[in-house]
Amino acid sequence: MSAALETAVTAPAVAPAPPLLEVNNIEVVYNDVILVLRGLSLAVPQGRIVALLGANGAGKSTTLKAISGLLKTEEGEVTRGEVRFGGERIDGTDPHLIVRKGIFQVMEGRRLIADMTCLENLRLGAFTRSDNEVKRDIDMVYSYFPRLKERTGLAGYLSGGEQQMLAIGRALMARPKLILMDEPSMGLSPLLVKEVFSIIRKLNEELGITILLVEQNARMALSVASYGYVMEQGKVVLDGTAEALATNEDVKEFYLGGHGAERKSFKNLKSYKRRKRWL
Amino acid sequence: MDWSLLLQLTLNGLIVGALYGVVAMSFVLIYKASQVVNFAQGEFLLVGAWVCWWLLTDWQLPFWAGFLFTLAFMTLFGMILQVVVLRPLIGEPVISVIMATIGLGIFFQALMKWIFGVFAKPFPPIFAAEQVSVFGLQVQTVYLMSLGISVLIMAGFAWFFTASKHGLAMRATAFDQQVAQSLGVSVPKVFAMSWAISAVVSSVAGVVVGVVNGVSSALSFYGIKVFPAVILGGLDSVVGAVLGGLIVGLLENWAQYIDAEWLNWGNMYTIAPFYALILILLVKPYGLFGTKNIERV
């Protein structure tokens, strides 16, 4: 995928105001030797949903962890470049302090505290707050996810969809300015994926929360995002408005699957032809 | 059959067992939060009891003041121990950490003997009436205080872990440190806090036992009694620790009764809990309340 798309022909999107989150040319190294991100840059404007797409192993999750600081818990390090949040440099800051600045990562696989109840998970989301409006916010979360209110058991026994909703609800409890969402559609049925994404859009519109969304389900992601980046091997190889990306031929081929007449047969793809047949 | 002796021993078992439970709880707290098997738990009792004794006798403080100062001291003591000794060992092999806590135990054991001598010293009397009568049984007032304090601490733990956000954060850290950090919890702070709370709670037990039996290095045996209690209950369960403590306390005293009435071996008191431990682990290898992980496939 070489053809870089010119930054959106019809883009009133990126206004001159500095973006809420700015990642400039960062390089990430794990265990001092494994280079995962090689000069990645992206920007997330205030109040938008930005999608980060790419194949497995492209470095999407690593990008999110570089922003949230969780890289530190996995022997990773930002060795070059900078991450700015609201103009302030945050790379190298401990993850628990970054949460207090207003960035909350919903990690891949929901990562709830399985042996706590729904309510305890939600209250834990508000750990960084010291105001006394936690109760009100719990009701607010219940208004977005009514079925969580009926679940009184342990979070570990919730269904996959409910767990994802609880993970998002827990993020809301921290009153973040920016939510980093890693694969919210993972392991969910198509119907639930739709539901989760409609909630993501609602949160963005009603609460004004900025969202950086990492997704395998590119079609869904581009349907809620206003801007998108495509990553490959630790770099951004393509970026543009969501509409532009959704109609881009390369993106269609690699992430969305071909359409109608131009649909390619799998037989014509070399990698499939070479694969050993069993019958 | 001597029914009044049996009743008396059962009551003793409950009182001593509650104390074991309290110490076991504080042991589990450290184990859960920071994955450290603390072999110096008994020395927390010892240090706390000696500090309180020193404040009451040398400084002539009233009991409540000496007690509060002891708690404040032990908070700092636990925290400093974690920060200075155990924090640098994070990520080191389990065996190194165990050696470090064994070393701490020996060090404080010796330090206390060096400062305060090797003989048991009694606390100044705290209650006017030495004994009160409960349902016809003569019970020492200090025993009642001991039971009261144990129950109070247990209620405090229950409140802390379900209602306070720091308790929730501690449980989250025990469950998954990375997730805890992603929620804004500072893991080093949680570690320090767990050691502080553990030291404070253990020292309360130390003071109580000291008031009953006098202060001596025998106090650190409570640290060893904790193991059957904790393993019985399941290493990572706070409720299990309490019940394990009660079971060990009761078993000890009932074994003593059987011994005194029929066997006359003279040693059942100490070993009975360990026999029971083996039997229970044969049936339930995780202990009575040890959690197997919840897994959705």
TrEMBL record, chain A:
SUPFAM superfamilies: P-loop containing nucleoside triphosphate hydrolases (SSF52540). Keywords: Amino-acid transport, ATP-binding, Nucleotide-binding, Transport. Residues 21-258 form the ABC transporter domain. InterPro entries: AAA+_ATPase, ABC_transporter-like_ATP-bd, ABC_transporter-like_CS, BCAA_Transport_ATP-bd_LivF, P-loop_NTPase. GO terms for molecular function: ATP binding; ATP hydrolysis activity; branched-chain amino acid transmembrane transporter activity. GO terms for biological process: L-amino acid transport. The keyword Nucleotide-binding applies. Coiled coil: none annotated. Belongs to the ABC transporter superfamily. This is ABC transporter ATP-binding protein.
TrEMBL record, chain B:
It comes from the Bacteria. Keywords: Amino-acid transport, Cell membrane, Membrane, Transmembrane, Transmembrane helix, Transport. InterPro entries: ABC_transp_permease, BCAA_transport_permease. It is a multi-pass membrane protein. One of its GO terms (cellular component) is plasma membrane. Pfam families: BPD_transp_2 (PF02653). Its main location: membrane. The chain crosses the membrane at residues 6-29, 36-56, 62-85, 97-120, 140-161, 190-214, 226-250, 262-283. Belongs to the binding-protein-dependent transport system permease family. LivHM subfamily. This is Branched-chain amino acid ABC transporter permease. It comes from Roseicella aerolata.
